[in-house]
Structure to design on (256 residues):
């Protein structure tokens, strides 16, 4: 009789083993498969690839097609900046790029005073296409604009107490002014900003709130995913508990 019970038990266990699903969650992260690294091929010295030289082509117009050829004067930007900071830093305002009607990049050099001819000639000599470099006169230097921006930044809390929320400040090199984005954007608040910091160096614009993409929705999605994982783990535990109880009943039946 016991021999028949053992045989029946073995058959049941065999069938149960075949029908038991395998859970991916049972594999622990640390149980990774070790794979011997593949040795790198040994190349002859003359076959080794050479690292390409990276050339700064300046700002790229996203509306234009990508090309390997770029304006040669853009490569001279570091040299031009170095010359300016070494020789005429007191009158330098900014450097930026604009595009003409033919979509050619024009290097705009802004100064608060007329640049002496010898310095102009030295700067133009650094560029392959000097006709694409423009000297512009503006009101304020880079250092003056940065100092004014720092003054505004230090007053954010005071302005907020007056009902003006500052969303951003920046040095706008295109207009040679400090740009301040505020809310609410109205004539009364613009007048308050000008009264506090002057109107000569300030351009007041409408500020907008910045919303992070992974805010509440992202948190809810993460919580839902975490809950689903916990539910799956709970189901796995319940499944194995049922398996354990099944074997317990089998052995109880055998020893009767």
């Amino acid at each position: 009789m016991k021999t028949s019970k053992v045989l029946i038990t073995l058959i049941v266990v065999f069938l149960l083993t075949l029908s038991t699903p395998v859970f991916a969650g049972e594999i622990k992260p640390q149980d990774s498969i070790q794979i011997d690294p593949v040795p790198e091929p040994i190349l002859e010295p003359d076959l080794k690839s050479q690292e390409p030289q990276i050339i700064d082509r300046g700002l790229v117009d996203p509306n234009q097609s990508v090309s390997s050829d770029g304006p040669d004067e853009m490569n001279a930007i570091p040299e031009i900046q170095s010359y300016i900071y070494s020789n005429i830093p007191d009158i330098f305002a900014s450097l930026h790029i604009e595009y003409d009607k033919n979509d050619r990049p024009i290097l705009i050099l802004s100064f608060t005073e007329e640049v002496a001819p010898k310095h102009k000639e030295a700067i133009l000599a650094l560029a392959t296409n000097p006709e694409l470099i423009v000297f512009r006169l503006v009101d304020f230097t880079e250092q003056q604009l940065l100092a004014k921006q720092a003054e505004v930044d230090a007053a954010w809390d005071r302005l907020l107490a007056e009902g003006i929320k500052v969303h951003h400040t920046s040095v706008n090199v295109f207009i040679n002014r400090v740009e301040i984005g505020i809310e609410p954007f109205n004539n009364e608040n613009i007048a308050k900003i000008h009264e506090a910091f002057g109107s000569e160096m300030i351009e007041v614009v409408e500020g907008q709130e910045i919303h992070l993409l992974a805010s509440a929705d992202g948190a809810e999605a993460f919580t839902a995913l975490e809950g689903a994982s916990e539910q799956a783990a709970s189901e796995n535990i319940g499944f194995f508990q049922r398996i354990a109880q099944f074997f317990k009943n089998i052995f109880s039946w055998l020893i009767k």
